[in-house]
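Final paragraph of the annual report: two paired records, presented back to back.
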Amino acid sequence: MTAPEVRKTHAEPLFRIARRNAVSVKTKIVTRAAAILLALVIDAFFIVLVTKLNPFAVYARIFAASFSAPMLFMQLLRDLTSLLCIGVALAPAFRMRFWNIGAEGQVLMGGFATAMCMIFLGDRIPTSALFLVMIVTSILAGAVWGFIPAFFKANWNTNETLFTLMMNYVAIQIVAYAVNIMRGERASVGSINKAGWFPNIFGYNFTLNIFIVAALTVAMYIYLKYTKHGYEIAVVGESERTAKYAGINVKKVTIRTMLISGALCGLCGLILVAGDKHTIATNTAGGNGFTAIIVAWLAKFNTIYMTLISFLLVFLEKGAREIASTYGLNEYIAGIISGIILFFILGSEFFLQYRLIFRHRAEHAEKGGADK
């Protein structure tokens, strides 16, 4: 005698979420393009309802903010390179699942070291020697700022998120203290002389920044994808137990990776001070240390994709400022317009990683399997 069939007493959910196994490049492109298109439609309704403006005219101004003149496009590249450089620096740490939230401070310390070299050595040593000293000191300053939290994490398993975040405030206070001491003619590097400034190429001092960051982007892509160190970083990020079983020294990889991440942030500080700002202040990094977290995460730590994400974020930021100025809009309204686009792009990543299985489809699939 068979036991009676047990009926389900609980209600099935309307849908459930399941992880996708693999997504084709075509699907990724179509999904992201659809997200941007939908965001533009929502933005158009928002613009008409709130500002009473023609959405097509607003979109045209956003585009014109970066492409209506060669100088504006070069400024776009300038801002892109500073954001992308930090994103590239964060890539190895994030790939290792070491959440380095301290890029802002690491960049600031690299820029601070560069500024001190320019102030105190600018008129005392040859330019070639000055550049060499600036490079070494900026890299060392950033590397030290990355090494400290990595050392504590590797040896005592401290929380790297809080540790690196707190290091930002320490860096800010150091720079603020130094600038206050030197307040006056030395508070600005450019007020003394131009020793240590990057050379003018194609009419801009920051042109060299673009070449440097482009080279770093490609080099980091190769480092993470094709080298033994990149493999070790990926294994440690997936599972420390697996890494230890495979004979990988987790402590060594953790410290080495953060030294690289901090050093590249320090180098970003160098290009900001020597190739762009020509001064040092507590806001030299401009918040890019935090924005770059979005860049690294959206690009899945692929530095080539980071270029596209950085371009989009900088393009939207410049466009928001342009329409706020042109149409006299509140800066928050302009921010909402660009924020909606970013929100939809972030949302599209969910659908690339997961799929929704609705109740009726699941039941249909089960019946089909039972009939067979």
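The closing record of the year follows.
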Amino acid sequence: MYEALLISYLVIAVILIGFILVQQGKGASMGASFGNGASGTIFGSRGAGNFLSHTTAVLATGFFLISIVLGNLNSHHEKTNTSSFENLEQVAEQVQEQAKQNNTDIPQ
């Protein structure tokens, strides 16, 4: 599940970057620079969003939700396999016990 979320996270990120780069800014039209249409208000008229803006909003929401889920999974992810260096204390105790048993078994 973690790998599938990570792959979908990367795919959404790449698609989101593409959709953001394809969109035009508010003042990108030629009429806006000469005072026509969109430049009548302080920030320009917004109007109804088109397909690109709605898709970008959906992708951004998915991106943030998946990032929260991945962060939660990473914070509660426990290691299933431990390396031999993490259990050195237990290994040292076992070696000492074996050495004691070997020394007591040998007649002196």
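The radius of gyration is 31 Å. This concludes the annual technical report; the extension proposal builds directly on these records.
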